[in-house]
Amino acid sequence: TALSQSVARPTFKEIALVFSRDPESGNFFVGNPDIEMSEILNLDLRVEWAPSSGDQLAVSFFSKQIENPIEFVNLGVFNTARNEESAVLYGFELEGYKKLGNLVPELEPFTWGFNFGYVFSKVSLSEDSQLIRQQAGLSTDRPLQGQPEYTFNTNLTFDHEDSGITASVLLNVTGQMLYTVGGRFESNLTPDIYQRPFTSLDLNITKKLSEHWSLNFRATNLLNEPRQRVFEGGLPFSVTQVGTGYSLGLSGK
Among positive and negative, which fits the CA dihedral 184, 177, 204, 225? Predict the structure, then answer.
């Protein structure tokens, strides 16, 4: 069990009064110099079970109370960052690792792992934000911007010490989340924008060449699934498809 207090400071992008453009979405963004850092009270409870060497199962419960959470707001012409009154979120995470050699000796180099997390979040709005949402016909009961409802990750790792080869396949699923909060720009009211669930698949292979040198190959977003964002109610806002990325690197230490 752990109880802690932390802060989340705004990034340079969030605080600088400078226009920039997101290369992935094409959206324009301008920072807010009046933004304040967030203060977070964290409560965590974790239970672990290790039935044998290399195997582990753990479950975690957590909650966060956030003062002045920083959120991205859609103003129609561009997006910006803004503090909200407060937010609370809580949930659980289930994770596990299994050395497959404990089941079948021939699978000794393989390890399988996974984690699943579910989060409930709710924002307490300022009076100004409540008024804006009521004027726009939006619900005043909404989740925290940028917080997915759930995440799921699973990976299969091959680690062969004699050949110096390590390879991993990683699957990630991100649940629906509030992408940007609706807002008001002059007399124009803008709706919330949600991002639908998104799945990605990555591959990473490393070959140890010597004691000090290794070669690494990485392929990201192999499924090339589009990111779909919609206005509240389901009308499409944008669909972006960034393609699959490949990289080859040589590293020394």
Answer: negative
User: Which residue is it, tokens 């909650």?
Assistant: 63
List the chain pLDDT tens, one digit each, 253 residues. Answer: 899 999 999 999 999 999 898 877 778 999 999 999 999 999 999 999 998 888 999 999 999 999 999 999 988 888 999 999 999 999 999 999 999 998 899 899 999 999 999 999 999 999 888 888 888 888 889 999 999 999 999 999 999 988 999 999 999 999 999 999 987 777 778 889 999 999 999 999 999 999 899 999 999 999 999 999 999 888 999 899 889 999 999 999 8
- Residues contacting residue 187 through CB under 8 Å, at least 6 positions apart: none
- Confidence (pTM): 0.87
Q: How far is CA 227 from the centre of its chain?
A: 14
Give the CB-side neighbour count of residue 107, counting CA atoms within 13 A.
12
Q: Which helix (H) or strand (E) holds 12?
A: helix 12-15
* Owner of token pair 């966060």: 64
**Radius of gyration of the chain from its Cα atoms, rounded to whole angstroms:** 22
